[in-house]
Amino acid sequence: METYTAMRHFADSWGLLAMTLFFIGVVLFTLRPGSRESANDAASIPLKDD
């Protein structure tokens, strides 16, 4: 039972920090300059054969 408590404490502290940093990184990656062009290119991939 002690292992569950340790894992719960880890998830509550460092796990939350890791998920928050990951979320901020994804948002910054999405909003970086020049991302609009690459997103539009990726969105048009299914239509390139038509």
Number of helices: 2
- Which percent range describes the beta-strand content? under 5%
User: How would a textbook summarize the main sheet?
Assistant: none
Oligomer: single chain
Rg (CA only): 19 Å
- Look at the structure and give the mean pLDDT: 88
Secondary-structure-derived class: mainly alpha
Pick out the low-confidence regions. Answer: none
Number of domains: 1
Number of strands: 0
The backbone outline, from C-alpha atoms, is: elongated
Helix fraction, binned, reads: over 70%
List the secondary-structure elements in sequence, H or E.
HH
How far apart are the first and last residues' alpha carbons, in Å? 59 Å
Structural description of this entry:
With 50 residues, this protein is mainly alpha-helical. The chain has one domain (1-47). The protein is 76% helix and 0% strand. The chain is built from 2 helices and no strands. It has helices at 2-30, 35-43. The longest helix has 29 residues, at 2-30. It is elongated and about 60 Å long. The mean pLDDT is 88.
What attributes does this structure have?
mainly alpha; 2 helices; 0% strand
How is this structure best summarized?
Pfam families: FixQ. The protein has 50 residues and is an all-alpha fold.
